[in-house]
Amino acid sequence: MKGNIEERACQMALYIIENRATVRAAAQKFSISKSTVHKDLSERLPGFNRPLYLQVKDVLEENKAQRHIRGGIATRKKYRGE
Question: CB 3.0–4.6 Å: which of 4, 31, 63, 77 could bond 82 by disulfide?
Fold first, then answer.
């Protein structure tokens, strides 16, 4: 998946939009780092596909707003032994 950066960024954006996925989930799916996902979606994608960028930006902002809740749930599971 290392080939065409524009194609990779579009595919990642569509994956995140369709699955309401996190950056971590997208990075795992495409076998790349989280920082590469961020760079592709926040810096490269707006340059060649602005409408897709605006859609994926909404999902990423929603995930960021819920991040502290997910962290609390994960910590609770860890200490309860689930």
Answer: 77
In this structure, the dihedral spanned by the alpha carbons of residues 44, 48, 51 and 53, taken in order and rounded to 10 degrees, is: -10
Nearest-CA neighbor of 11 among 61, 56, 65?
56
Which domain does 52 fall in, by range? Answer: 5-80
Those residues whose C-beta lies under 8 Å from the C-beta of residue 45, and which sit 6 or more positions away, are 9, 10, 13, 52, 53, 56
Residue 25's Cα: distance from chain center in Å? 7
Task: Output the CA angle 57-5-17, nearest 5 degrees.
Answer: 30
pLDDT digits (tens, 9 = 90+) for 31-70: 999 999 999 999 999 999 999 999 999 999 999 898 888 8
Could you tell me the two tokens for 57? 């930006």
Could you tell me how many residues make up the chain?
82
Measured distance CA(36)–CA(34) in Å, rounded: 5
Cα–chain center distance at 40: 10
